[in-house]
Amino acid sequence: MASRHSIQVIIKKLEENGVEFIHLTNLLTDHDLYKGLFKLNSLPGSLFRRIDILIVPFDELGSALIQWTGNDLFNRRLRTLAKSKSMKLTQHGLFSVEPDGSSTKIASKTEMDVFNALGR
Predict the structure, then answer these.
(1) Tens of pLDDT along the chain (120 residues)?
(2) Which of 8, 62, 97, 120 is the most exposed, having the fewest neighbouring CB atoms within 10 Å of its CB?
(3) Which residues of 44-73 are buried (b: 16+ CB within 10 A; e: fewer)?
(4) Which residue range forms the structural domain that includes residue 7?
(5) Last residue of a domain, one of 54, 70, 90
(6) Are both 50 and 82 inside the same structural domain?
């Protein structure tokens, strides 16, 4: 899978450049998301910091940015707003939800696309 390979390449390149990791996910089995701790060995007294690396399809970038960079309260409010309009918001996109439970993606490429679709 391309995303698994991409995460492994990113981590290896960072390690080659003096970044030390403690892996919280398995690089061989976790495909889209890496969670770990890192520190810069070049800085004396450097502390470990949390890092998440998420690989997403380009056409889902906007919705992924909303979900992964917004705070919890903001994300809950957006999901509640979506639900009130018979929609569902995930990191993969904004979906219209039909009464039978089926869904159709209506926005995901940019944050503005998602916000505009929610504002209709």
Answers:
(1) 455 578 888 899 999 999 999 999 887 776 788 999 999 988 888 999 999 988 899 999 999 999 999 899 999 999 999 999 999 999 999 999 999 999 999 999 999 999 999 996
(2) 120
(3) eeeeeeebeeebbeeebebbbbbbeeeeee
(4) 2-54
(5) 54
(6) no
Structural domain count of the chain = 2
pTM of the model: 0.77
The amino acid occupying position 95 is: F
Instruction: Give the DSSP H or E segment for 88.
Output: strand 87-90
The rounded distance, in Å, linking the Cα atoms of 60 and 58 is: 5
Rounded to whole angstroms, how far apart are CA atoms 78 and 33?
23
Mark whether 47 and 62 lie in a shared domain.
no
Q: Is 94 exposed, middle or buried (0-12, 13-18, 19+ CB in 10 A)?
A: buried
C-alpha distance from residue 110 to each of 2, 31, 66 (Å) = 22, 23, 9
Q: In this structure, how many other beta carbons lie within 10 angstroms of the beta carbon of residue 103? A: 16
CB 77 within 8 A of CB 84: no
